[in-house]
Amino acid sequence: MTHLLSNLPQLWPWLILLGALGCGWVGLRRAAFVLLAAWICVAALTGIISTMAMIAVILGLGLAAWLRTASGPLAIAGWSTLVLWSLAMGAHLFPGFNNPIMLDNVLSGPNSGLFTLHLNADKPLVFFALLLAWRPLLEQDRHRQTVPLLLSVALAVALFPLAIASGALAIEFSLPDWFMLFALVNLLMTCLTEEAFFRGFLQKALTARIGMAGGIAAASLLFGLVHFPAGPAVVVFATLLGAACGLGQWYGGRMRYAVLIHFGFNLTHLLFFTYPGPA
């Protein structure tokens, strides 16, 4: 909390974006887009996004708004374009976004490796595009099935002993002074955005066409593959975590269960194990 308060002069524009993400997640669409519009204005005035980046944002969100009621061959082309736009935003491929470093090579504990945290202006925009374009994003698909849902959580938890056995993690208890900043950014900018794309959109679209097993497997594999820059081992663990989140979404009936499993995993990793890995 101390770290969060001491950095408010630098953080305040990002609190607007975090507020917009939170409002969107709980279904306050009008408030979410009012805050998003305010943040875009502030971001443009403070140099967080350039003119070129602003054009990319407007085109992407405009396309998303059109897709909500589009149909036919043009809609297929539009959805393909939106998927590519979302992947490019998530991979930080569009120029003109200033994603400042908020934590620079910090340690969560003495046995952990160095960790750097960026405040991303591009990646969270994927959530708002999907909120505009994809009606089923926040909708309840089916009734919650408690036992299979708990098994989904158990699958995520089981990844920790597997990581310890493989040497990817070690046990280390820590509560760094930047914990609150990490929690806010990780929940809303990382977990919410990633789960909106991979589970709320991609998995729902795929399971409607190829069934539960195929849809969850495909979305989980793609989730793992986008972590390839971190190495093959991370791809495997991310794919398994994606499967746990996918099952959580399916048996919980809402995207929020996938978000909470993902966030719970990341939070447990930080608090009880070397983060992001051993030194």
Automatic annotation (TrEMBL):
Top-level taxon in the UniProt lineage: Bacteria
GO biological process, one term: CAAX-box protein maturation
Keywords, alphabetical: Membrane, Transmembrane, Transmembrane helix
Isomerase recorded as keyword: no
InterPro entries per the UniProt record, alphabetical: Rce1/LyrA-like_dom
GO molecular function annotation: endopeptidase activity
Protein's UniProt name: CAAX prenyl protease 2/Lysostaphin resistance protein A-like domain-containing protein
Species this protein is from: Falsiruegeria mediterranea M17
